[in-house]
Structure formats: structure tokens, C-alpha cells
Amino acid sequence: MAGSEAAWQLASVGVPVILHEMRPVKTTEAHQTDGLAELVCSNSFRSDDAQNNAVGLLHEEMRRANSLIMAIGDKVQVPAGGAMAVDREAFSQAVTKTLMDHPLITLERGEIDGLPPEDWDSVIIATGPLTSPALAKAVLEFTDEDSLAFFDAIAPIIERDSINMDIAWMQSRYDKGDTEADRAAYINCPMDKTQYENFIEALVDGPKTEFKEWEKDTPYFEACLPIEVMAERGPETLRHGPMKPRGLTNKHDPEVKPYAVVQLRQDNQLGTLFNMVGFQTKLKYGAQSDIFRSIPGLEDAKFARLGGIHRNTFLNSPNLLDDNLRLKVRPSLRFAGQIIGVEGYVESAAMGLMAGRFAAAERQGRTLLPPPETTAFGALIRHITGGHMSGRKATFQPMNVNFGLFPDVETPLQTEDGKRIRGKEKSIARKRAMSARALEDIDDWLQGQPKP
Predict the structure, then answer these.
(1) What is each CA distance from 369 to 135, 158, 354, in whole angstroms?
(2) Which of 26, 253, 356, 431 has the most Cβ atoms closer than 10 angstroms to its Cβ?
(3) In terms of Cα–Cα distance, which of 246, 247, 243 is closest to 228?
(4) pLDDT, tens digit, 9 for 90 and up, residues 242-267
């Protein structure tokens, strides 16, 4: 995601690019194709609400900055309520074709198994969460830093026609969405109290993937915990998390409120595949099939892909990178994407966009300061380069974009008719004020930069 976006930004302003991709010469534990920008965990870019949600705001900033990832994503969307989700196969194919058709981009297949040669005077390393061990080792040895890592888990995907719609029903939580398709974007599988308790017990007792000795102390990223790890935290954890029944009414039996609900989200444009929302897992394959088919409506589920788990490595970026995403001890190297400590497809692509623009400016003899920290772009850069952290290794963790990274903003205390704003209304007003300020500031930052 980050490398594809960086290459696009460079080529769009006239800078030639050589794009190195090790697949299929060398594969990873999670990728299944040799396509660029392959989505391996989920097909969701999360909320597309630019007024009230920080990731939706980042979407809009990226669109205004000529983002390839957002342009392709907009073309291959599938219904997802208030969220943005894409057909993952069509998405990767379109990104790959667009980059390969650009006359200034050359694709070379093969692993870069160490630091790039010294005569490569401008390099962006955007190797994602599955950086090749040889390259990761070389970078870590060169910087004299220990790696930080966590596990990232993958949710199963189910064939739509194997779901029993006499039990399940279509509805987005609280009927969110602008269209009928969005308001019915999720398949919902209800559970009563006994079914839920039996399910939790099976999750906790089910056989799990065993980690190698050197992996056992690796922490999970809190926003992407395996379903069974959440279950181990307490029997009610899932019912107040991804399996919460709030905002949903079973159309087959409206008078009976489900005790818990499993949601599935469309995964391709044809609507033939659905992924289990929040069901990242490290259960063994046989256990996954048995346990997940105990969910009402999924008794005969056909799995297009079962869940899995992989290790994610990232740099101690506050100590290592400057605000142009350059390695302080070797400024010819820039880093972007999840390897620098952002989490999520959109955040990774956004940092690729920034790295591409910084590198293009440098190549063209221009000075380009980072976007203001009042923008989503700037808030992320500030986080990963130390603005929100002390720089101590123990405190730096991967981060999704969120309004907690933004400087505060003054909001009105009263409505125009004199009514005092408080509680939830105050929070909404604050987010909207932050978003409005961000979009104004990113437009100012983009003005005067070369147009594609």
C-alpha cells in the first residue's frame, strides 16, 4: 500500500521510479498473490465519514492529495454501511495495472536482501508488516536498535451462498448508510445466551497456533486482537465488542433481542464473499471450521479462506526518523507504511503518499515541510517522529489515526439559539471543528505544489 502510493506520487510529478517487489520470487506468510497493494487482513478502509471520524478525514485529505489508493478504492467499493470497503482482488489488480501502465515506473521482481547500495541516492523502504528477514536484520543492525513487533491476525472469509438467511439477516448497525445497500450491508447471525456462552467456551478451549520460542513474548496490537484472546479476557468481552447486539433488530423475530450478534461484511464486488467482522484468529484450521459453524446461520459455511496470524515488525521511529521520514543516520533512506509504526491500510498508504512527495521535492530541488499537525497527515507524522511520545522504545506503539493525535481546537459553548453545548453534542462539535480546520489547512499546504 505505502510503496504503491509512494511510486504513484513520484511518477505523477515527473520523477522516474524503480519499484522493487520480491513476490513471487519470495513469498510471505500472509500474501496469496504477486499483485501490488494486496489486502491480506481485511477489505475495509474503515469509516468514510470525513466530518466525524479521523480515518474518514484522512480519506478526504488523501483524495485531495491525488492518492492512487483512494482513487482505486472509490472505483471498486462494495456496500459497507458507513464504512468504506473494497473488492480486494479488483483493488489489487487495478493498482497493479495503473502503476505498470505508467511510463515512468519500472517494476523489478526480486528480494532486496540487505540495505540498498550506497549509490542508490534516494530510496523509500515501504516493506509493510512482513519485511523480509534479511532486510529487517540489515536495517536493525545499521541503526543499532532492537526491533519491536506484534502479531496481526487475519479474519476468515465465507462464501455468501453457504450462509443460512432463514436465520441470518441483512442490516447495518443502527441502519447507517446513505443508500439501501449501505443500510443492509452486513449479514447478522444472532445468538441467545446459551449459544453465546457455549461459543465463548469453545473459543477459549480450542487448539491455537503455537508460537516459536522467539515469538512468545511478542504483544498483539490492541485494535486487531484475535477473537479467542478477547474471549480469554472475560466472558462478556466479545458481547461488548465485535459481537455486540446494539443497533440491530432480527427481522425474523423482531420481538426477541439477540444476546450477541456475529456480523459479516461483503468482501468482493460480486457479493459472493463475506468476511467475519472482528474475527481475526490464531485458532487451528480444523477448530476454526468446527467452532465457527456453531454460529447460527453458519452451520453449512464454506470458507474461502480461514483465519491466520503473522508477525509484524516496526521501527522505533521517534529515535530513527526525521520529519521527512528519512533515516537520521543515512538520509538517502526514507521509510513509509506499517514499518514506521502506523497501523491500518489507509494510514500506511498515507505515509507512502507523504514519503513520495518528500522524495519528489528533494529530487526536484524543492523544500517541502510536513503538513501542519492540525491535519491527519501531519498528526500521524508528528506521532511517529516523536511529537506525541517521549522517544523511549518502551512507549512507542503502532497507532491508527485518531482525533487524540490532533491539537485541540476551540469549539462554541452554545448553539446559535443560545442553547449550551455539552456531553455528546460537545464531542461531535469538537470533531467537526477539527475536521473543518484540517481540510482548510491541507488545502493550504497543497497549494503551490506541482500538479500531476
Answers:
(1) 29, 46, 10
(2) 356
(3) 243
(4) 999 999 999 999 999 999 999 999 98
